[in-house]
Amino acid sequence: xxxxxxxxxxxxxxxxxxxxxxxxxxxxxxxxxxxxxxxxxxxxxxxxxxxxxxxxxxxxxxxxxxxxxxxxxxxxxxxxxxxxxxxxxxxxxxxxxxxxxxxxxxxxxxxxxxxxxxxxxxxxxxxxxxxxxxxxxxxxxxxxxxxxxxxxxxxxxxxxxxxxxxxxxxxxxxxxxxxxxxxxxxxxxxxxxxxxxxxxxxxxxxxxxxxxxxxxxxxxxxxxxxxxxxxxxxxxxxxxxxxxxxxxxxxxxxxxxxxxxxxxxxxxxxxxxxxxxxxxxxxxxxxxxxxxxxxxxxxxxxxxxxxxxxxxxxxxxxxxxxxxxxxxxxxxxxxxxxxxxxxxxxxxxxxxxxxxxxxxxxxxxxxxxxxxxxxxxxxxxxxxxxxxxxxxxxxxxxxxxxxxxxxxxxxxxxxxxxxxxxxxxxxxxxxxxxxxxxxxxxxxxxxxxxxxxxxxxxxxxxxxxxxxxxxxxxxxxxxxxxxxxxxxxxxxxxxx
Length: 496
Known about the structure:
Elements: E1 4-11, H1 15-27, E2 33-36, H2 45-48, H3 60-63, H4 78-91, E3 98-99, E4 103-110, E5 115-121, E6 127-137, E7 142-147, E8 161-163, E9 178-182, H5 186-195, E10 201-206, E11 212-215, H6 220-227, H7 232-256, H8 258-281, E12 294-297, H9 300-306, E13 310-314, E14 317-321, E15 324-327, E16 332-334, E17 337-340, E18 344-346, E19 353-356, E20 359-360, E21 368-369, E22 373-374, E23 380-382, H10 391-412, E24 416-419, H11 442-447, H12 466-472, E25 483-486
Parallel strand pairs: 1-2, 1-6, 2-3, 4-19, 6-23, 8-17, 9-10, 9-17, 10-13, 11-12
Antiparallel strand pairs: 4-5, 5-6, 7-18, 14-15, 15-16, 19-20, 21-22, 24-25
Helix pairs in contact: 1-10, 5-9, 6-7, 7-8
């Protein structure tokens, strides 16, 4: 059976994959492409996650695409985001390129053919083989099938249910139940106010507090511009630039004057729950931005605590018991249901088995080029977004880069491009993908050993700085010695 062949194969139809399809179609209109998505529809995270209250923790003016105006509230529900993505697909006729329920198991590169061979299964379990000249990895960075739950002693003794939000069951009835929610991040802050009105009581159990930014789920500038009857395209661009300007200033201040920023963040929480509860349960021990800071629309988690619908306990778990969770302080938190909002499992390039010219590929043995390409891995780019800014900002920048690279390869009549350390990089010290002193969430620390290495030069690291990359990435010299181009494909080799 002859495999189908495309110029570009996009992996994933989430926010990155749909954006990639748009950019490819508009900037490289002559390229054939296909999008393979393991799930039954588009949306990625926003389709997978079904837990109560599921919403963005980034504003949609920057999490939305630069080419598609956002017209709703800054913080959006999963349903609103899926609707927005659906409009992008429909308006740009992308649906005919997307194949759902196609799970990729293996990707093999052949330098003889200058092509990738993708081995997948469709929704009926039938094998599917596709070849492509270029692979655009847009599958995200965590495992959709399962969240991360630590192994605590005695979990098997607990009489109730232990639920991870990432796999929220359809049959879960929390009405009148005693609920303990473990975790202190954006997911816990989302689920708690969504269930607080129905349960008997919910207790947020956290080992350590997290920073939040409470505020109105509205953008005053956007509202004023709409009153002035400004076109939505202009509103989107103006508001987007203003938000990015303010975020840049805030991020830089978190490094330059962390104590002042910390006090501002704590004052925002204290306005809801008062200084005593803030000091006891909402004052992190780390400086701002060492972990992601979530926006809390209308301070809803703090309103639930203030109203007595929820309580917060800062302690560590000793063990699970029949009736609840025993803490290291000795206290027992009684529970009918435990929700483990404890994060997710990092995966690298979709848990796909990669092979290059017959040799298994371990990405941890490679060095990253700007967090997009990897030494020794030809004709492939990975979209990995920002931690301190919206993911989609980088998806758009990478989209421009990939299309410029593909067009450059055509101009050079090159069939293969890879990145390689230059002579001047030979003795460059290598370290982990991200500096844990600057950013250290649990999922990243648990999976850092799986990720490619970074160097000490800007070309060989993922800077996590949108405000620098928005200027640098468009100016990348595609003829720099870091890019290695090779020649034409032999016509008879694809099927070999």
